[in-house]
Amino acid sequence: MFDYQFLIEVLVGGLLSGVMYSLVAIGFVLIYKTSGVLNFAQGAMLLFAALTFVSLVERAISFPLAFAITLAIMVVLGVSVERAVLRPLVNEPPITLFMATLGLSYVIEGAAQLLWGTQVHGLDIGISDVPLDIAGVFISRFDLFAATVAGSLVALFALFFRYTRTGLSFRAVADDPFAALAVGLRLPRVWASVWTASGIVALVAGLLWGARLGVQFSLSLVVLKALPVLVLGGFDSIAGAIIGGLLIGAIEKLAEVYVGPLFGGGIEAWAAYVVALVLLLVRPSGLFGQKLVERV
Amino acid sequence: MSAAPLTAQLSPGAGAFAIVVGAAIAFGAVPLFGSDYLMDAVLTPFLALALAAVGLNLLTGYAGQVSLGSAAFLAVGAYATYNLHLRLPQLSLIVDLVLAGLVAAAIGIVFGLPSLRLRGFYLAVSTLAAQFFVQWALTKFGWFSNDNPSGVIDAPVLSVAGVTFTSPAGRYVFSLSVVVVATFLTLRLLRSQSGRNFIAVRDHELAAKVIGVPLLRTKLLAFGVSSFLIGIAGALWAFAYLRTVEPAGFNLDRSFQILFIIIIGGLASLRGAFLGAAFIVVFPLILSRAGAALLGGVFDSGVLEMSQRIVVGMLIIAFLIAEPRGLIALWDRLWRVVTRPAAIRNT
Amino acid sequence: MIKSRYLRVAFAAAVASVLAAAPAARADEQFFPLQSYRVGPYAAGGTGFFGGFIDYLNLINIRDGGVNGVKLTWDEGETQYEVERGVEVYERLKGRPGVAAWNPLSVGIAYAMIDRITKDKVPLITINHGRTDSTDGRVFPYVFPLLLNPYSETSGIVNYIASREGGVDKLKDKKIVVLYHGSPYGKETIPIYKLLADKYQFSLEQIEVPHPGNEQQSQWLSIRRAKPDYVVLRGWGVMNPVALKTAQKVGFPADHIIGNVWSNSEEDVIPAGDAAKGYIAITTQASGEQYPVLQEVIKTVYGAGKGNLDDKKRIGSVYHNLGIVNGILNVEAIRIAQAKFGKRTLTGDEVRWGFEHLQLDPARVEALGAKDLFHSINVTWDNHEGDGRVTFQQWDGGKWKVVSGWIAPDWAFLRPIIEKSAAAYAKEHGIKVRTSGDDPVSN
After folding, report:
1. Contact C238/A225, CB-based, under 8 Å?
2. Domain for residue A293, yes or no?
3. A106, B316: Cβ pair inside 8 Å?
4. pTM for this one?
5. pLDDT tens, position by position, B254-300
6. Which residues have a Cβ under 8 Å from the Cβ of B82 and sit 6 or more positions away?
7. Which chain C residues are within 8 Å of B38, Cβ to Cβ?
8. ipTM score of the complex?
9. CATH number of the domain within which A259 lies
């Protein structure tokens, strides 16, 4: 008999993991939407934020204060990236910008380890992970908490973009940078605020992932989990990042558990990409991405 | 620089002279007088990476299709060469190399299919499927590594028609010959109608279609030829340089490294691929030597290495800002200063 | 301009390296080239291991004035655990005078060096890891997987589980899941676990975790469904803490998870926090700083401000102690070789002879101040592993505690498999198999 309870467990586990992917993906989307850059340094920023936070906590600084300090550092980082990297490279082709963010990731990773050392750290944010047993299905408390945080973060961003001046100019820039310039919006300021926002996302994602993996170099590798989410959901859609994350999380787990054994397992690493690819062949800009219009 | 000069602005006579001198140095002086370290640890990896960069540049620089899966094709080339050599020992190594290139090309064409629908970063990220799938398959199926318990393969002896290349100089000359021939053939291809089609597709896909460029054929040809070259480069990397291979050696970082080479060297320039490879291979070595020599007593190697990582990252950014068109643009500008009359004639 | 300048510097560097290679040996030094990794994903292991190794070499220099007056020297080249950087460091340092042995602590780099060191006649030490069939010294004269190769590790783990269940006959109908890293390293022991499962009649399931292993929900759900008695964790890097965390998530008890030698360090458990409490792992060297040799390192080396670890709390950690043990084995091999060849700088081949006679019984180990740190070693010309014993340690949330005696793997059972694999390698590479320790080494 087919074990439906197990299926549900896999599905729920997958969806909850998916939220964690979405969280990383949102950082990419914010930047891509306004400046057309695929910011590969997002992983390094995540590592930097988590490492800074955990090192501060280990130096006996309280949680809220450490959070505030790290946040401040991420804001400074965001603004200086805009100044030093993005502004001089404006109007360069996307690939050049992409490579610049790769270079940036070297700088941030190096600086993070130089400042705080290469030791691994445990990060306990006070959520015990004894599973909840709901009718025989185990659900992770920690994952539920992470999903709540991610959900509130998205809601906050949504409100911010709808009701604040900066948020509105952000949307204007995303829509049409030239028109935005023409009506007098200051592009650099929007960029700086967007890098700051993605720095905040990096901090939150870094803490949640850091609590799952431990805070160490490998934290920067979680971006690889976010890339198929971006492709599936569209690089420029926050809603896409959420839905894409949920889909990828669920598909990945189901594929590993039910299809994996046919190949001897371990297919998770590429299954997500293949699924995203197949979908792309139907919708070349992802589920929610803006359609590219080519001028002739 | 839009059409990217394929050769330096030289008069034909001077060009031929430069080629002869270059060949004499590369094939004669270096293997005779160079140290083993220079050939084994600097020049051979430089040649392999330069060839891979030529391949990727053809795809990305000329045909405008971004790929993040280069390392996968390096791996395919290396493993195909190994298996051809192992299972069909009667074939010559050169035939093995060409066949391995063709295998890589076939896989490249399969993973190039999405390019018909996808653009830009969507395409780039989807080539990651190749990256992860190939690495998984090579690790998963023991057959590829002849059921070696640890999945790592050992290099066959390089020998062509009875001549073996086992010394550092031998491996270097072997790599150099392969790279020279492959680069020459690539140059010929780029100057043909197909090469012009690549550029047309890159510059404006719709316009290219309107004037009758076969999009499907052109894109797949670019993926095929590019993977072919990268596959051969993989065989060189594995058997002339490292002499052992494990799938983990062909990870995403390697793909990024090759992408760096073509961006820093200069897109759509074969000479740029070589300049970029020289930069990426030699520069970190110099930096690490200089760092160790100057500050080795003060800091431990970890601190030095991390500082180097920061310096390399900053230089890459600074370089992209100062000269987004790559080393080759710097080179050409310098050349024009040196040979001012020629420059005036050309402009 | 850029190009010519860099070329010139490159040329100068090349010339310098040629000059450096010119023999200028002062007669009383023995050199250890170190392909260390203090940056990148495995930096924590690298700093601990190479720190411990250097600390021990320092101890010998400061306390004894070297080995019988021969000073020990070393130089580090950073590899970031990448094979091609390891090869570059090899080519850079191999010409230095008096190279004793190479100790990369990286499977990939070790593989790339086998041909090279065999040609250059210098020993390659792969303590606790490396190529299993290099245990067969008849085929691999210069490669030494000291103390424990991957097959012995497998057998040691199964023997430990048997001892917990009350004997090998109790293994029958037990269920063991092996959770392995999706890499050549992770897959190496798959056939050995199968063989042992057949031999002892336990049921076995082997599940792969794709690299890097930062997401294991589906694997652990499968484990929960399979309801095994034990899970063997054959992990690497970030995969280890995530496995422990995810095990907690599906309610699998940590004290029924047994880690292998790459899953046995503080770095593997600390990030998992509470979830790691009770977790058990195999080791060849106990952790802690209570052993006399560690006390001397603390007093003599750290007391003189020459300690290599930045963080003194890491003294006595798993990787640091592995480095210390590795130092003991290297130094004793040199001492043994010096007894035969004279108290001077030895050639690589002479050091190889020393390693092939590296026999330290428990009494000698105690004299070295390492009683209970490791058990003993008995290397011979055809057994390059040296029959290392293993012990098991349990994480109590703050430190490792030894929870077993010294357990012997089933060497006799494994030897024919190793010999078969080595013979295949010899055939593929046209190597003449040695028939005694005095055979001149071909190649």
Report:
1. no
2. no
3. yes
4. 0.89
5. 999 999 999 999 999 999 999 999 998 888 888 888 877 777 666 76
6. B145, B146, B153, B155, B156, B238, B239, B245
7. 14, 17
8. 0.88
9. 1.10.3470
